[in-house]
Amino acid sequence: MRRSVTSLAAFPREAKNMSLVAVGNAVGEVGLHFYPYDEGEGASAGLAAGSQSVVYGASERVSRALEFNKVHTDLLACGFDHREGRSSLIIHDITRGANVRQLLGSSSGASEGVGPKHSRHPSSASSVGGGDSSGGGGGGVGGLSLGGGAGVTSLCWVPLSADDLLVASKRTRSSIRWYDLRERKTASRVLYVPISEGVDAAPASEPIYDLQFDPFNRLRYMAHDRRGTAYMWDIRWAMRPLLTLALGTQATRVRFSNRRSGTVAAVGGGSSVVSVFSINEYIDANAHQTKRLSPGAFLDDSRAKDRYDEDKSAMSAQPPPANLHVWAER
């Protein structure tokens, strides 16, 4: 039976000379489609050209997000809709056919100790008991319970990191969370929760999509909601956006350009028009202030200025990971 494709991820070509695509569908299956450039590569990888290997079996929920790790290219992050008794976020090792980590939304309230603290190549973490019984491809690990409705809407690996993952999830309040896979308890920190006050603020339960880092600024990332508002943050000061971008229509896709710094493209629902914005001159990362532009282009987020002192206090109590300070000094 033909099933709708709901998520897609291409293997980082700069890492290995092969063409590998991960495809997720509407019933929770995630498959690998492998296309070698020559027969030798196909043989060495153990997969025939054009074959499909299901890395996670059908679980009767939608696969929402997939992304390969740029450092450990054999690790695939898989995000799913919420379903009782199933993990919404799974880290899969495609070479070993095993789930390294299963996080988010396990109804069992399994122990937060979800397996050994993995090394820079966490292949030893694949057989810890208590995993999701619906998965194809080997032993999982116990899920980390974060409450009901913890479905994943978007995810992305942090640049230059082998172990850090940002995840946008729809819970009681939508949020963006930071996961460090080296931590034994896979503790997450909340980077951003949409503010519900104000005319332009997103509702607390508004899902966030297309989480992504700027290819020209690895400290800056962006996401958007379906109402037509995109948010941009600096990961060092992630409790409020650097910039709020009003797209003027319901947004289905928003992307950074990978050819020109500071350029963002957006497409609205049911629209054949792609809007392109230039943002660099309007961002002052040092002052942490947004600036008002012409109506219909950008919205001035005055709430951010009013909350600046409050945010500084909160960030001092919940600082970002130490390695970010190293990135900032380079």
From TrEMBL:
Q: Which Gene3D superfamilies match?
A: YVTN repeat-like/Quinoprotein amine dehydrogenase
Q: Which InterPro entries match?
A: WD40/YVTN_repeat-like_dom_sf (IPR015943), WD40_repeat_dom_sf (IPR036322)
Region annotation Disordered: where it falls in the sequence? 105-140, 305-330
- The lineage's top-level taxon is Eukaryota
Query: What are the Gly residues biased-composition ranges?
Result: 128-140
Q: What is this protein called?
A: WD40 repeat-like protein
- The scientific name of the source species is Coemansia spiralis
